[in-house]
Every structure is written in structure tokens, then in C-alpha cells.
Amino acid sequence: MANQAEGAQAYLPDGGGLTALREAVDGCRGCALYRDATQAVFGAGPAAARLLLAGEQPGDVEDRRGEPFVGPAGRVLDDALEAAGIARDEVYLTNVVKHFKFTRDERGTRRLHRTPNRTEVVACRPWLDAEIREVGPEVVVFLGATAAKAVLGSQFRVTRERGRLLTLPDELGGDTTRSALATVHPSSVLRSDREQRRAAFDGLVEDLRVIAR
Ligand code: URA
Ligand code: SF4
């Protein structure tokens, strides 16, 4: 019997590609986050996408709909991709953590995002690794610090390294040569105050343009 300390690995199917992974993920008990979430949210997009974008975790809307980036942050991402000349339907979108982590506000009505901790991120990594292996993209883009640190190491600083082409760690390299790039999370654009918002959005677009080229 698998136990939570082992993380997600024990729940991954042996074969069957993305379809089998997507079917299996909701049964994952690799960490405690499955308990309060509505469902696991797996990645979405073409199985042979040249570009894979990884965010942090599903948000409130994604948790209820079962699809990544379909809430407010997803709309910012859509606009940024369009401005960078990248077609969203040609991109594979996913998250480093597949279940929504949240806390309730004092009245118990709204569900407020909580950042997944290192243990949860590490527990969930096998799903992301499997997606990267199956899709075999040319470039993996990490949206925000949680996603970037999950794969590039806890010392990684998005503020310092954003917008630069990096090399994906060997264990994910496989037979295709793959590059990585880190940028801010689209929700950071939503969190910035009015005067800063345009600049934050433009910064995200500028980083994504590095990939489009
Ligand atoms: N933020 C993320 O990181 N991922 C989503 O799917 C939605 C919001
Ligand atoms: Fe499994 Fe990831 Fe969900 Fe934790 S967050 S239960 S590791 S799918």
C-alpha cells in the first residue's frame, strides 16, 4: 500500500501516455492536498506541443472546473500569450502541483490561495516530470517562483533569471534537447497596484517573446 510520504510516484500508471496520466491523477494521495480540493487538475493542450507552460497550482475556478488557467490568472495569461504572438491552443498548460491548496476566509465563504510548500511540490513532481516526458516540448516555461524552484532548485531566483533561456536539468532532458525559461506568474500582474500593472504585464509579455523568437 502506497503511503503519502512516498509522494505521487506510486500513483503513476505504467504506460498509456497522457490519457492514462490524466485518468490516474485524481486518485493520487501523494500528499494531503487531495483531501480538501474538489478534484485534481491535470495539464491541457496538444500532446505534441512545442511549448509547455507550468504554473503553480490550480486556483479556485480551476479547482471547480477541472481545467488549468481558466480563471482570472488564465485570462491574464491568454492576453500575454496573444501579445507575445503565441497561440494558446498550441501550448500545453499545466501546474507543478495538481490539487488546489487554500484556506477559508473568516466568514468561511471565499477560498483563499495558499502557496504549496516544498514537501507538497516535491511530492507532486512525478506528474509534471511525466507530462514533460510525454509532451517532449522544445521549451518549458515556468510561471512564478514556486514553479521555477520546483524544477530548477530552491536557490533559483526568478527576479534575477527571468527571461533568459536556461537548460532543463538532465533528468528531464531525454532525447529532445530542451530549454527552459522562467518568468513571473500571471497572478502577480493581478496583484500589482494600478500604476504597476501595465509594466508587470509588459514584463511578462517581453519574457514570453523570447520564446516566440
Ligand atoms: N494559477 C496557476 O498557477 N495555475 C492555474 O491553473 C491557475 C492559476
Ligand atoms: Fe498527489 Fe499532487 Fe494532489 Fe498531492 S497535490 S495528492 S501529490 S496530485
Automatic annotation (TrEMBL):
Record's SUPFAM superfamilies? Answer: Uracil-DNA glycosylase-like (SSF52141)
* SMART domains in UniProt: UDG (SM00986), UreE_C (SM00987)
**Uracil-DNA glycosylase-like domain location, by residue?**
42-209
Q: Which UniProt keywords apply?
A: 4Fe-4S, DNA damage, DNA repair, Hydrolase, Iron, Iron-sulfur, Metal-binding, Nucleotidyltransferase, Transferase
Pfam families, alphabetically? Answer: UDG
GO: which molecular function terms?
A: DNA-directed DNA polymerase activity
Family matches, as PANTHER family: TYPE-4 URACIL-DNA GLYCOSYLASE (PTHR33693:SF9), TYPE-5 URACIL-DNA GLYCOSYLASE (PTHR33693)
Concerning its family, UniProt says: Belongs to the uracil-DNA glycosylase (UDG) superfamily. Type 4 (UDGa) family.
Protein name, per record: Type-4 uracil-DNA glycosylase
Species of origin reads Pseudonocardia parietis
